[in-house]
Amino acid sequence: MVNEPKPTLPHPLPGAVGLSHLSAYDWEAADGVCGGSPHLHLVCTEAYVVTAGRGAVQTLSPDGYRDIPLEPGSIAWFTPGTVHRMVQGGDLRITVLMQNSGLPEAGDAVFTFPPEVLADPETYAAAATLPPGTGPETAAAARRRRDLAVEGYLTLREALVAGDNGPYLEFQRAAARLVRDKVPTWRELWRAGALATAERTGAQLDALADGEPSYLSEATAHEAAPTRLGGFGMCGRRDEYTLPGTTLPYHGA
Fold it and tell me: Do you know which InterPro entries this protein is assigned to (predicted)?
């Protein structure tokens, strides 16, 4: 008898994390460095697992500017509010693990555009959003977006290295203002994803303590393959998945 697979259920990846693969951009920026678009996340911790090549991730945070080397097998992660920029050193490829699957795609990430762009939501959205597709027009728009983010980033970095954290703190405040109206939607995604996953573990512990592990009858397995290859992400060309749970389609913003 052939065992038929069970229907796919909304079981997220462990911890309700998001998953993608990135190949760092090899476009040279104004400072002569090749890499991605600097940005921060408001409520998500992000991790890089390096699978090939070499490079670095540059970060800005209250503890200053850091340049963290990336090589196969290394892991780097950064908490909410940390500005990060992935830098190409040679065929750099990483697997990205993102806390709170669905929130980055719903606008949790904010680019380090200059203050005048950040000050107006419509201007910011126009600069952050890419045209659909993976052709030359989208590539050109992604590069323009990267260059604009680097422009603002270099100003923040210069001030922070000089001991002035004022511009960095103002960027954080501007980012928070930009996303404030999105918080109710984020809260629902969090409740359906990361929070529900944690609460499900609590219920399972209660069941085990009571000697009633009936939930194990729902055991199953899942598999997934990339649903889009070579899209234009924030840091590089992005392979993405449509996964059970709260992962949303990515639109490049």
Answer: RmlC-like_jellyroll, RmlC_Cupin_sf
Alpha-carbon gap, residue 224 to 33, rounded angstroms: 35
Encoded tokens for 27: 């476009």
Instruction: Considering only residues 224 and 71, tell me which one the structure prediction assigns the higher pLDDT.
Output: 71
* DSSP codes joined into one string, 15-65: GG-EEEEEEE---B-TTS-BB---EEESS--EEEEEEEEEEEEEEEETTEE
Q: Alpha helix (H) ranges present in 58-120? A: 115-118
Class of CATH domain 16-207+226-240: mainly beta
Question: Hunting for tokens 């606008």 — which residue is that?
Answer: 107
Q: In this predicted model, what pLDDT tens digit does every residue of 51-69 receive, in sequence order? A: 999 999 999 999 999 999 9
In this prediction, residues 192-198 reach a mean pLDDT of 90
SS3 for 4?
A: coil
* pLDDT digits 0-9 by tens, 166-184: 999 999 999 999 999 999 9
Nearest-angstrom CA–CA distance, 82 and 168: 10
Q: Cα–Cα distance between 128 and 25 in angstroms, integer? A: 17
Domain boundaries, the chain: 16-207+226-240
pLDDT at residue 97 is higher than 90: yes
Give residue 243's pLDDT band: very low, low, confident or very high (50, 70, 90): confident
What is the spatial distance between Cα 17 and Cα 91, in angstroms, rounded to a whole number? 25
Task: Give the whole-angstrom CA distance, residue 101 versus residue 192.
Answer: 10
Cα atoms in the Cβ-side hemisphere of radius 13 Å centred on 195: 8
